[in-house]
């Protein structure tokens, strides 16, 4: 199409600048975690590492449009950031002395070799994973710090994720960094005997990010695809760094098998589409196949793990042509295994729903009623919703309407509320 005569003339500098900006963004997304981890490992301070990482990116935005993107952009950023850090430490000798002490302690704890030459950018993100997810930090701080440091979200973006004011989130992130500094939490990968105790915390942080992305706790949208995809990206990194850990494979498999259904969960008007109504032709088959392969790795070579079993359940859903032909007996059996690993009421709730689909709604409702006294299920929207659905299927309209009202009061996102309002109107219309 011809450009209208009123359009301003094209600035010949715009395309190189835009291209450089795009290149910086791509490099930043791919290399930021590695760069930050290497700098923290060298200088022992998250704040300093973040500041000089940002300065290196800013320098790239100035120089690359003129000189071009270097052959090794990650190494260029590392060299620039390291020089900025050294300059800053030279100006503040007391700060440098404190960091040097912390670094000696960290080196002694980790037994790590010194940093490589300028052309190398060591991949030390695994150490950063365990630092951000250290059990000494409160659970919400671990998620916030992981999003900030490993996912590369800005503080305002992390605040929006938690639906908190930016100032509140900034204080939370600062609190986590101060805890790491004051408690002298070592920047290292746990020893082999510590890994079984520490790895679940790292996996839980990543899964918490995914859960908020796949099923947002509140807001106008059902899904936050950016968060779900960021969690998958982090799990892929962890899988590369810990290829022999079966639960890492299980977590990645679980997220892929669930995320494969993302396009079918939302209708054309943004409405919620339940599993039994989804167009399975819209499911991402490539992602499902990758998840199925990872399930095999997760369940081979030892007793089944928490994420591996959940991934196997997700795989059975994804393999079925529809809800009616889903292997519900096998899913119930896998929930029995899962309950032996983690006897939580939330897992018992999911098992009750599977029993309802295997044996009928009356059997499932009886199991749900047995869970009615569980404190963790009070105010838990999926419990109220599941109970309402089973009551409706049993023809107990007034009770179903009451349960739908309860679920509606608890629902966090507008698509969920719209779905529940629709169900409630159906109950009321049926008398």
Summarize it:
This protein is mainly α and 431 residues long. It contains 19 helices and no strands. It starts with 13 loop residues before the first helix and ends with a helix.
Secondary-structure map:
Layout: H1 14-43, H2 46-67, H3 73-91, H4 93-110, H5 125-132, H6 139-149, H7 155-162, H8 166-182, H9 195-214, H10 225-241, H11 246-259, H12 285-299, H13 306-319, H14 328-341, H15 345-359, H16 361-370, H17 381-393, H18 397-410, H19 414-429
Helix pairs in contact: 1-2, 1-3, 1-5, 2-3, 6-8, 6-9, 7-8, 9-10, 9-11, 10-11, 11-12, 11-13, 12-13, 13-14, 14-15, 15-16, 16-17, 17-18, 18-19
Keywords: Sigma factor, Transcription, Transcription regulation
GO molecular function: DNA binding; sigma factor activity
Family: Belongs to the sigma-70 factor family. ECF subfamily.
């Amino acid at each position: 199409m011809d450009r209208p005569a009123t359009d301003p003339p094209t600035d010949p500098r715009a395309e190189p600048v835009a291209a450089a900006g795009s290149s910086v963004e791509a490099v930043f997304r791919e290399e930021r975690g590695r760069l930050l981890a290497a700098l923290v490992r060298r200088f022992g301070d998250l704040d300093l590492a973040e500041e000089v990482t940002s300065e290196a990116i800013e320098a790239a935005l100035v120089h690359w449009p003129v000189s071009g993107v270097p052959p090794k952009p990650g190494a260029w950023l590392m060299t620039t950031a390291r020089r900025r850090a050294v300059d800053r430490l030279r100006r503040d000798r007391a700060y440098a002395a404190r960091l040097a002490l912390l670094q000696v302690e960290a080196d002694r704890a980790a037994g790590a070799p010194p940093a490589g030459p300028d052309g190398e950018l060591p991949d030390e993100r695994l150490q950063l994973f365990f630092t951000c997810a250290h059990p000494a930090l409160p659970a919400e701080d671990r998620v916030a710090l992981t999003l900030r440091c490993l996912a590369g979200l800005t503080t305002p973006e992390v605040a929006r994720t938690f639906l908190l004011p930016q100032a509140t989130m900034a204080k939370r992130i600062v609190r986590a960094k101060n805890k790491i500094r004051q408690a002298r939490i070592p920047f290292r990968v746990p020893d082999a005997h510590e890994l079984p105790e520490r790895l679940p915390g790292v996996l839980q942080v990543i899964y918490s990010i995914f859960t908020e992305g796949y099923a947002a706790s509140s807001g106008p949208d059902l899904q936050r695809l950016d968060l779900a995809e960021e969690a998958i990206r982090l799990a892929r990194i962890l899988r590369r760094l810990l290829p022999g850990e079966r639960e890492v494979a299980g977590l990645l498999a679980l997220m892929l098998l669930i995320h494969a259904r993302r396009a079918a969960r939302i209708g054309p008007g943004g409405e919620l589409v339940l599993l039994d109504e989804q167009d399975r032709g819209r499911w991402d088959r490539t992602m499902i196949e990758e998840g199925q392969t990872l399930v095999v790795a997760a369940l081979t070579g030892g007793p089944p793990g928490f994420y591996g079993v959940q991934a196997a359940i997700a795989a059975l859903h994804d393999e079925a042509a529809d809800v009616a032909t889903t292997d519900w007996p096998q899913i119930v059996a896998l929930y029995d295994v899962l309950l032996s690993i983690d006897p939580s009421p939330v897992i018992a709730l999911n098992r009750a729903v599977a029993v309802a689909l295997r044996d009928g709604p009356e059997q499932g409702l009886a199991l749900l009623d047995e869970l009615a006294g569980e404190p963790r299920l009070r105010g838990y929207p999926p419990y109220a919703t599941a109970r309402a659905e089973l009551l409706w299927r049993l023809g107990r309209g007034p009770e179903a309407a009451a349960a739908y009202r309860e679920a509606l009061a608890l629902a966090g996102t507008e698509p969920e509320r719209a779905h529940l309002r629709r169900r409630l109107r159906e109950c009321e219309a049926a008398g």
